[in-house]
Amino acid sequence: MLKRGSFILTLAASFMMLAANVFAASPIRIGALFAVTGPASFLGEPERNTAQMMVNKINAAGGIKGRKVELIVYDTQGDATKAVQAANRLIKDDKVVAIIGPSTTGDTMAVIPIVEKAQIPLVSCAAGSKITEPVKKWVFKTAQNDGLAVAKIYEQLNRLRMSKVAILTVSDGFGSSGREQLKAQAAQHGIQIVSDDTYGPKDTDMTAQLTKIRSSGAQAVICWGTNPGPAVIARNAKQLGLAIPIYMSHGVSSKKFIELAGDAAEGIILPSGRVIVADLLPAADKQKKSLMAYVKDYQKQFKAEGDHFGGHAWDAVMLLKGALERGGDRPAAIRDQLEKTRNFAGIGGIFNYSAADHAGLGKDAFVLVTIHNKDFALVK
């Protein structure tokens, strides 16, 4: 028979073991900021869907080191103020160890000071180069830099011996970042910008800007923005009979743009991640296995095609998974392991982060695609 003191010690030890087991089984909390509704929902909805799909797959396979992953998603509606409020809530109330998103450059730039101060890793799904240039200690991104997209377009224009272009950019964070890159890289590619105009995110007619472009001597027009504006531009250009090639940014790299632009989308060229042409890639492509698996999984669960934007969330979740497996769930350890990521074949490209590069992708992350018969095809 146990003595009273021994019984109390044994009971206390049992409670300590139980508490330890409960702690070990506590979920790893990851926050997510996506524009699930609002004008940028074509970005945020597939990102939200993809992130939850991947977290569910991780948990179904036993979690991370035996612990469940809990994804806490807030809808920013593409509003920087709401993004800031949600970021603070994730950090202060939900006690997340990392955040993925936001969906847009503007929202991301608004929350960067918050995550930097709180020392919480952020893996943005937005494209603006200024998100990671210059490098911010706690901020990474999965979307291909707009500077890489500009280079891809300019190199194509060089091959076609076109040197005079018109640029038409949206007056928001994504558009201003793209405009900076278009102007900064022009001279090194021998490009002359003969018309430089903007439009508002909510504008519904860009006929005036396109009329100016038609008389500018431009050999091509480059539009930089996200839906619905670029679709309006495509339709207006068709109505005006604008007879020069139209290039769009990777901001419209989904079937949603084709739906919005209709017949006016035919022949438009844009840089994109490989996911929208995954089935056209050679078998030797390093990303093809991940791309095809993602497309198949997304189609099965959501009865829609997995796209370029959902792919940014796929990469963010899987990059965090790798960091958590290698370094544990302390925010500082996650940050350090993200920075050590090498040769990760994701949806957006082959990622190689470093202390000097928190974007992690090169020019080969993009392919040029054209729209033909309401679908995407590789530009040869």
Write the layout of secondary structure elements.
Elements: H1 4-25, E1 28-34, H2 41-60, E2 69-75, H3 80-92, E3 98-100, H4 105-118, E4 122-124, E5 139-141, H5 146-159, E6 164-170, H6 173-186, E7 192-199, H7 207-214, E8 220-224, H8 229-240, E9 246-248, H9 255-261, E10 269-272, H10 288-302, H11 308-327, H12 331-339, E11 344-345, E12 350-351, E13 367-372, E14 375-378
Parallel strand pairs: 1-2, 1-3, 3-4, 4-5, 6-7, 6-8, 8-9
Antiparallel strand pairs: 10-13, 11-12, 13-14
Helix pairs in contact: 2-11, 3-4, 5-6, 8-9, 11-12
Which descriptors would you attach to this protein?
12 helices, amino-acid transport, Branched-chain amino acid ABC transporter, periplasmic amino acid-binding protein, putative, disordered N terminus, Rossmann fold, 2 domains, Leu-bd, 14 strands, 380 residues, globular
